[in-house]
Amino acid sequence: MTAMLAVAPLLLAALMSVGPITQPAAPQKGTPVTKHAAGTFDVKITPQKDEGVGDASIGRMGIDKQYHGDLVGTGLGQMLAGMGEVKESGAYVAIERVKGTVHGKTGSFAVHHLGVMDRGAQRLVITVIPDSGTGDFTGITGTMTIEIKGGAHYYTLDYTLP
């Protein structure tokens, strides 16, 4: 478990350095417009106590984020990470509740992270969980990307509201 906790932040950092997801085609007439929010965030990943459930090679971490830029708020969640037997292979999943303000709208929504690293080849998909929006974010859909450049964490949020 100790080795897992030591390697999990490296896996997370590698997976978060994946570039942005391709943007969807231009909206058709009558289709809600996808809006774009971007900025930086600070993140603290905290190993959680092993409660003897599951395999010791799977690490569980707490996520605590502070978002800045177009999205001002917090993100709290949990992550599970596992490493493969081959260096630079592993995966993580996470659920994060984002609370804050984006473009004058306030509320919360949840996102699902899925990151896979296959012998160094990286893939990261972050999706807004359907029907997870509250307040002004009721009905939100969208995707998020995360990138690490020069030690700083950057996000983009492409979202649609009804």
Through-space gap between termini: 44 Å
The best one-word shape is globular
What name does the CATH topology carry?
A: AOC barrel-like
In CATH terms, what is the architecture?
Beta Barrel
Counted by DSSP, the helix tally is 1
Share of helical residues: under 10%
| Low-confidence runs of at least 5 consecutive residues | 1-7, 18-24
Output the CATH homologous superfamily: SO1590-like
CATH C-level: Mainly Beta
Strand content: over 45%
User: Helix/strand/pairing class, anyone?
Assistant: mainly beta
Query: How many discrete structural domains?
Result: 1
Order of secondary-structure elements: HEEEEEEEEE
The number of E-state strands comes to 9
| Widest sheet, order of strands | 1-2-3-4-5-6-8-9
- Subunit organisation of the chains: single chain
| Largest sheet geometry | 8 strands, antiparallel, barrel
Mean pLDDT: 87
Characterise the protein shown here.
With 162 residues, the chain is mostly beta strands. It has one domain: SO1590-like (AOC barrel-like, Beta Barrel). Helices cover 9% and strands 57% of the residues.
